[in-house]
Amino acid sequence: MSTTMLLLIALAGVLLLLLMVIKAKVQPFVALLVVSLLVALAAGIPTGEVMKVMTAGMGGVLGSVTIIIGLGAMLAG
């Protein structure tokens, strides 16, 4: 995939994230997870690898814990 296409995908991801948080009032953590998933798929990452890439991007070992804590904090608050 070309560099230009990857930059356009990233730009679309940022715009979608802003739209979800500002206009649709989606919780920022959930919006970030959804946009991360969509950008990963659009960038051509194989479906089976997406969660591995997302967890690695969130901090390796702490990535899976961050998702649980983030969702728990959102539900509690």
Automatic annotation (TrEMBL):
Coiled coil: none annotated. One of its GO terms (molecular function) is gluconate transmembrane transporter activity. Signal peptide: none annotated. It holds the Pfam family GntP_permease. The chain crosses the membrane at residues 6-22, 29-47, 53-76. GO terms for cellular component: plasma membrane. It comes from the Bacteria. Keywords: Membrane, Transmembrane, Transmembrane helix. This is Inner membrane permease ygbN.
